[in-house]
Amino acid sequence: MSREEVRKWLHENDPLRLAELYSQADTVRKNYVGDEIHLRGLVEISNHCLQNCAYCGLRRDNVVVERYRMSDSEILECAYAAVSRGYGTIVLQSGEDYGLEPDRISCLVSRIKEETPLAVTLSLGERFPEELASWREAGADRYLLKFETSDDELYERIHPALPNRVYSRKGLLRVIKDLGYEVGSGIMIGLPGQSYDALINDLFLFCEMGLDMIGAGPFLPHPETPLGQDATYARLPEGEQVPGTEEMAYKVIALTRILCPDANIPGTTALASLNREEGRKLALQRGANVVMPNLTPGTYRRCYEIYPEKLCFHEDAEWEHAQLMQMLADLGRPPGKGSGGRRGGSCTCAAKEMLL
Ligand code: SF4
User: What is the Å distance from ligand 1's center to 60 Cα?
Assistant: First the structure.
């Protein structure tokens, strides 16, 4: 698919034409990654963060949020819960928290690998290459780090730089890949100042990076942040600004599937938060093949408020699991067996030479 075809789809509003796009994406999904839906249990192990991203409720300047770090035994309990529910992967996620000492993470990863059949995904922010290397040696399989947008100027505007950073986020993703991790990354859709050209570049960058997992969710700023308090901040004129709508999120998921046919693509929690009833289900019918049920204990999950009204604030893991199983049954698609990894997969994007 060419850049101009992608652009046309991003501007398409005719429901019948969009149904064609979604049907094509669903066929590609079925042909390349099959019907299985991979369940990756998410544990939000700490909400401390050194960074100050202009939209995120966990940013360091937000003094309203109650901070926590889970204990090792609490995290291991979540890992056992993932096994008992048949999930193939556990995802340990946090803000950029240097209170999570590297050796502690290594020990946790080793224990999970020794005591369970789970694949371990880490999503702990921009950490030093030595730390990333030690966690890989301890057995971590994957690392998730969103590049958010391929537009460097836009990225810098909403992510104030920290001193002593040697790597850009995209540079760090290359380091992570070189360490042998399967790499997950992604973007936000509708960032203020995000143009259609920038979004098209994002889609082609997915292909170039050969990502294992690609997440794309709508931009939902937290009210206790600069972007949450100024809805007009840096927005482009109507027609140039990418809208952070549910429909745009489905278009991006479908186009990502067509461009990167064998990637793992989640129906994101942000999308499910916009449409609690149908968001995940529609994403799974329009190219997605992964869901990340939240295993974080209820006392903590309410404090992991990256954006407001996040799905699962008020639900528990048991309830969400039952809902998911019902949804899979309704869709006639089985839960994935094993870890659902893509090691050895190659990007077959026909347009991967048309890069930035
Ligand atoms: S988006 Fe991530 S790095 Fe940025 S403030 Fe939130 S938790 Fe921290």
Answer: 9
pTM for the whole thing?
0.91
Examine residue 21 and state whether it is found in any structural domain, yes or no: yes
Would you say how long the chain is, in residues? 356
Is any atom of ligand 1 closer than 6 Å to the C-beta of 79? no
Residue 94 lies in a domain: yes
Q: Cα separation of 142 and 136, whole Å?
A: 8
Helix (H, G, I), strand (E, B) or coil at 335: strand
Whether residue 302 lies inside any domain: the answer is yes
CA distances (Å), origin 54, targets 29, 124, 206, 226, 240: 34, 18, 24, 6, 22
Q: Is 58 in the pocket of ligand 1 (CB under 6 A)?
A: yes
Give the domain range for residue 125: 3-331
CATH number of the structural domain spanning residue 131: 3.20.20.70
Tally the domains of the chain: 1
Residue 355 lies in a domain: no
Q: Whose CA is nearest to atom 2 of ligand 1?
A: 95
Measured in angstroms, how far is the CA atom of residue 330 from the centroid of ligand 1? 35
Tell me: the pLDDT tens digits for 13-30? 999 999 999 999 999 999
